[in-house]
Amino acid sequence: MSTHVTSKNLAGLYDLPPLEWAAVDAALVDIGDQAPGGRGPDRHSHWLTTVNADGSPHTTGVGAFWDDGAFYVVSGRGVRKGRNMEREPRCTIAVAADDYDVVVDGVAELVTDAGVVAHIAQIAADGGWPATVDESGTALTAPYSAPSAGPAPWHVYRVTPTRANALWVREPGGATAWSFD
Length: 181
Prior knowledge:
Layout (H helix, E strand, L loop, with lengths): L3 E6 L11 H9 L16 E6 L5 E6 L1 E4 L2 E6 L4 H8 L2 E7 L3 E11 L3 H13 L5 E2 L6 E2 L13 E14 L5 E7 L1
């Protein structure tokens, strides 16, 4: 779990107070159902940006889960986002939660701990995606997934935040950036 170390109020120009990370963290946990027709105007899409081998950015929609101060992304290891995270682990995840637009920069790491993989499978299943742990204990399978995830099994990547910023989309508004250790 990342620990908040510094924050910067990005809305001081408008005499707005800084946002509290705890409220943003709670909003990320509470996104819940990501399916069409779920919460939000229609749903909450997570956008993952990785770095291609030539240095150019690659952005794609992903299913992501916020748990214990980190994002967890599910992907096939052979698809572009999986290859990119393994080759260059620096990446960014963006999401519009109910009250905040949030961007998290972080470092991706392939999760091989069977207990963590099982925990993410349970979070996914609780959210409506019937994921289960495969026979290896280190990847997921399900009757379906996003076509961009590639064929099963799907692996879990932990994105540990290094920096984040959030825009509060409710009155009176506000924006804050945080750096984590």
